[in-house]
Amino acid sequence: MELLEGERVLAFDLETTGISTKNDRIVQLALIGSDSNGSEISYDQLVNPRRPIPYDSQRIHGISDSDVRGEPDFATIADRVSELIEGSVLIGHNVRQFDLPMLRTEFLRIGALPPEPKAVLDTLELARRLKLPRPHRLGTLCNRHGISLENAHTASADAAASLLLLWKLGRDHPSYFRKSLQEVEQWCITGTSAKSQSELGPQLEDLEPLDSSGMVRRDGPHLVLAVGRHRGRHLKEVRDSDPSYLHWLLSPKGIEDIQAKEDIKTYLNLE
Fold this sequence. Notes:
The chain is α/β, with parallel strands linked by helices. Helices cover 38% and strands 15% of the residues.
């Protein structure tokens, strides 16, 4: 992805004793990706929380007290974690609302300043901004995009899956990733870029119409709806989530342009 060229890019995920970012502790931390020179980075570490891991949490991630016995506590790994994250581009699912606040609390707890990434691209925020069909759970999105998520709820597997998901989203929705890293991050957070929404890439009205009425438009290799309840979504997404709408679109009541209908059928591999 051109947006990330020359950057240290790390997918980030935690497993914890619970969901409180102020009171719970980290039991596993993973940073998976590549350095700015392209060399691989794979850091996957169990962490001793110095407290019992509740049974309900063990059921989710499978990490028990015996698994972390003898493993380093967070203070022991903090310098290495800070070194990796500082100045990097972090990728993760719900990472801005959960993983990063949890990590910052751990650093503050040991009297250290938390590292500052250069940017954070949260795949949950991206799924919402792109108006992908719900639910937006990582497993559901991965399944929808053909990403295998074995060993779900292990930090390394979830981190790697979020990195692949970002790549798939960038491939399927290229117009949203054609600006600077900071502008794309700002759009993830607020829905607008640092300058203006239009500068993230062409808007629907700017895309080449496929049919004479402009109901469907070309977005690179994709066809996107410009009207109706699925406005802004690629036709392949609509085919998978709402096939009845696609049937209407290709009926006499939908698009009138015969050639456009044939182009849509070719795009969707329909006979």
